[in-house]
Specification:
This protein has 198 residues and is of the alpha/beta class. Helices cover 39% and strands 21% of the residues. It has one domain: Flavodoxin domain (Rossmann fold). The strands form two sheets. Strands 2-1-3-6-7 form a five-stranded parallel β-sheet, with helices on both faces. It has a two-stranded antiparallel sheet with strand order 4-5. Helix 1 packs parallel to helix 6. The longest helix is centred in the middle third of the chain and has 19 residues.
């Protein structure tokens, strides 16, 4: 089994989403036989999708400059990791009601027409199929099943768009509500992991 772990917190240490992603991977790899690739987007940020990146991506491969080839190669590497994975584990904290810029940059990198999705007669078709995805969602407040949760629809929509439809979410909420709330959130999240990874 090949496991790809994506840590998208801006924190390189002390991140609850990373703690939970680590716990999920540890349960998945209890036998120690899996190949685990970890990508920490705080320690090694992926460049944002800017004008230069767009120009590189939309320039035919045989007409790209060396700089353009280098930029496209960065995205190619992330796509290859996602394609090779049997299981993808994502640590996804909520920042200002959305996903982090780190995770958005990863999403932008792996979404490529003709490679991870295509447009068919009835609309887009995801090509990253046959993979299990676990997403550790952490929040400072309580947003699950509330109108304020605009993060979860974004995550579901993007993952489905590229073909990742077998998705299990683990929630840890209330981290801005004091020490007791944090302890409850961590305990609840750990119980969720134990329930979905028996």
């Amino acid at each position: 089994m090949n496991i790809l772990q994506i840590n998208s917190s801006a924190r390189s240490t002390g991140s609850e989403s990373t703690r939970l992603a680590d716990a999920i991977v540890a349960k998945l790899n209890a036998s120690g036989t899996a190949t685990v690739v970890r990508r920490d987007l705080a320690a090694a940020p992926h460049p944002v999708l800017d004008e230069a990146a767009l120009q590189a991506l939309f320039t035919p491969a045989d007409a790209r400059t060396p700089d353009q080839n280098a930029r496209v190669a960065l995205d190619d590497a992330l796509i290859a990791q996602a394609q090779a994975a049997d299981v993808i584990v994502i640590g996804a904290p909520m920042y200002n009601f959305g996903i982090t810029v780190q995770l958005k940059s990863w999403f932008d990198a792996i979404a490529r027409a003709g490679v991870t999705f295509k447009y068919g007669a009835t609309g887009p078709v995801g090509l990253l199929t046959g993979k299990k995805v676990y997403v550790a969602v952490t929040r400072g407040g309580i947003h699950k099943d509330a109108p304020s949760d605009v993060q979860l629809p974004h995550l579901k929509a993007f993952l489905s768009f590229v073909g990742l439809t077998d998705v299990q979410f683990v929630f840890s909420e209330g981290h801005g509500l004091g020490a007791e709330a944090v302890e409850r959130a961590r305990l609840d999240a750990d119980q969720q992991i134990n329930a979905v990874l028996v």
